[in-house]
TrEMBL record:
Intracellular or extracellular location(s): Lysosome membrane
Designated name of the protein: GATOR2 complex protein WDR24
Keyword annotations from UniProtKB, A to Z: Autophagy, Lysosome, Membrane, Metal-binding, Repeat, Transferase, Ubl conjugation pathway, WD repeat, Zinc, Zinc-finger
Reactions catalysed: S-ubiquitinyl-[E2 ubiquitin-conjugating enzyme]-L-cysteine + [acceptor protein]-L-lysine = [E2 ubiquitin-conjugating enzyme]-L-cysteine + N(6)-ubiquitinyl-[acceptor protein]-L-lysine
Spans of repeat WD: 116-158, 203-245
Predominant place of localization: membrane
Function (record text): Catalytic component of the GATOR2 complex, a multiprotein complex that acts as an activator of the amino acid-sensing branch of the mTORC1 signaling pathway. The GATOR2 complex indirectly activates mTORC1 through the inhibition of the GATOR1 subcomplex. GATOR2 probably acts as an E3 ubiquitin-protein ligase toward GATOR1. In the presence of abundant amino acids, the GATOR2 complex mediates ubiquitination of the NPRL2 core component of the GATOR1 complex, leading to GATOR1 inactivation. In the absence of amino acids, GATOR2 is inhibited, activating the GATOR1 complex.
Keyword Cell inner membrane: no
SMART domains tied to this protein: WD40 (SM00320)
CDD domains with a match to the protein in the record: mRING-H2-C3H3C2_WDR24
Amino acid sequence: MEKMARVTTALGGNALTGRTMFCHLDAPANAISVCRDAAQVVVAGRNIFKIYSIEEDQFVEKLNLRVGRKPSLNFSCADVVWHQMDENLLATAATNGVVVTWNLGKPSRNKQDQLFTEHKRTVNKVCFHPTEVYMLLSGSQDGYMKCFDLRKKDSVSTFSGQSESVRDVQFSIRDYFTFAATFENGNVQLWDIRRPDRYERMFTAHNGPVFCCDWHPEDRGWLATGGRDKMVKVWDMNTTRAKEIYCVQTIASVARVKWRPECKHHIATCSMMVDHNIYVWDVRRPFIPSAMFEEHKDVTTGIVWRHLHDPYFLLSGSKDSTLYQHIFKDASQPIDRANPEGLCYSLYGDLAFAAKESLISSDSNRKPYIGDRRHPIFFKRKLDPTEQFEYISSSSALSVFETDVESGSMDWFVHTAKQYALAGRPLAELCDHNAKVAKGLDRNQVAQTWTMLRIIYSSLGTVSSTNLNHSMGKGSTTLPLMNSFNLKDIPSGLGSESRLDRSKGESRTENILMDSSSTLINNEDNEETEGSDVPADYLLGDVEADEDDLYMMDHENPHAEEQEYSLPQEAFPLRHEIVDNPSALDHLQDKADSPHVSGNEAETVSLTPVESFSLISISHSLYENRLPSDFFNPIVRDTLLFYAEQGDVQTAVSVLIVLGDRIRKEIDEQTQEHWYTSYIDLLQRFQLWNISNEVIKLSTCRAINCLNQASTTLHVNCSNCKRPMSNRGWICDRCRQCASMCAVCHHVVKGLFVWCQGCSHGGHLQHIMKWLETSSHCPAGCGHLCEYT
């Protein structure tokens, strides 16, 4: 036994005393229940069925109900309940589908009273009526609920939930005739015991099975539910439609929920797997538990408050074969280990900062920041004077700093995402298009990046003057086209040396002309390109026009022509003596007759071989032979890392998708996944769902490609028999009726179908929309108030 603080609670004339204690059981427990005077507890499981007396310092075994020579499945219990009106009456739900009642007042060793064998599968839950002694309700895996009168041998009512299995049933504490049932398909139904043919209300509470529910002991309309989706939800049933008023997110599937007595907003929960702890939540503060009990070493299977009017004693059973009594004074408080500061950016750049009130108030030198929207707001929690352990003074101050509307605008992000082209065209067209989009949004650096990517990764022979000039307006100095130069200043031996070096296959980077303009200028068309400031005749390849035509005129700055630039006598450092090579010059002279030159150009070219030689032709040939696109991959990788570090993950991801395998191997998989995740999150926050899905499909990461492959199955129930549709046609294989009938026109819906999740009726989208313009009731005549989103 553990030595803990002793607690005494006064309940009328009686007093509950005790401490945190436990006892070892013979087998794992599936459920526990306490008698009305809080003096005894019954523990039931597959191999255990015992009653323990709760003493001041220990649990004492009082009675073993598993008697007889032959083991019976009737003793294998999935649930147990102790009647709160009759201290001698127990009921158990057996795993073989039998509901058994037990009379502790019998003088014989065998206390078994009645057996009800009407269920066909395992009974998951049994529940006594809170005020009627002889009324017992059960819920089974066969999808049926049965109401038994203990004075009769058979059930008096059978309720069909029209679902696969019933997980929990609970009588309402305040409404005499009402009970709630939870189901495997995520639905919760409210029934009137006087009307077993149809439920009073049904709503979808969870995404997945609903394992438990509990009516609030004080508030008549509050119903708490817990499910496999790791959520605890509180519903207000006083309205015409069930309204979710609180939601608590836990870390594992919720197996049990129990409202805490005398504390309106406190609820205890335990999990079905993974998590062994018991939590007590304040539903108004759903992100961190108010108290936590960590004693169990395996999954907790049953929790119950020791007394209906005592909030300080909690009993629990577990698969670790222990029975515990927990005292709130010994509970741990997760808030002790919580970070009291918080920082968050809004979608548009506003900054919210929360800190302890003591830190803010003690800073007397604190000055309001520029853009501070409002003074710090203090959130204080009123302490409960009756609570047996002290809460931390959980008061905090929140400051919000608002950014300038103009500087924080994200319109460029939305426009870019909508207009970018990421696939479906050749690489050169994609780069051209995206550069034009970026230039239109005044994002010149991004536009220049797309232009350079087009130059690096596309064929040089296809570079057009459109690509050269589309990202530069008139007067732009970001990438000069060509400086004026005089061909007469070119050394006569330059061409022969360059061609000689190429024939030898040497890799001399000194001979490579890296001027960006020379790698761009290669236009085979003899037309003026749209958007170009210069006629196409000036964009020369291997054959040049007249010497005077090489001077580029800037129309915005007419004096630019006077600033003539002449190349030095030696363009490159010489490694050996320059040797004249007449054969190379003859080769250049013969190029005037080349089929690659148009007829008009051939007629006008009258330069000498030395004069018609161009630096541009040298740079082209060297570039093609010695600088493959892989050479630039490290530079492109660093560029993408730069954009990502600057926060422009949109550009990084877009380039990654467009280049594909060309650059993917240069960036590790984890970094790519991080970029994709960040960009997809931004797109979804701006509600750009289609673009987000396109990015997922085009992603090169396997972890991202599967994001839009989850939760794509839609389960449909037949609108007539309410059973799941097992085939893909329009005919239900159970009731042989057309399931997808339009409630307005009464024809089969073979296209887009819309339906109400409350009553399962629906029809053609246009017909339902037109119907709801004049009426809010279901067109099928079921009386349901349909609501379509």
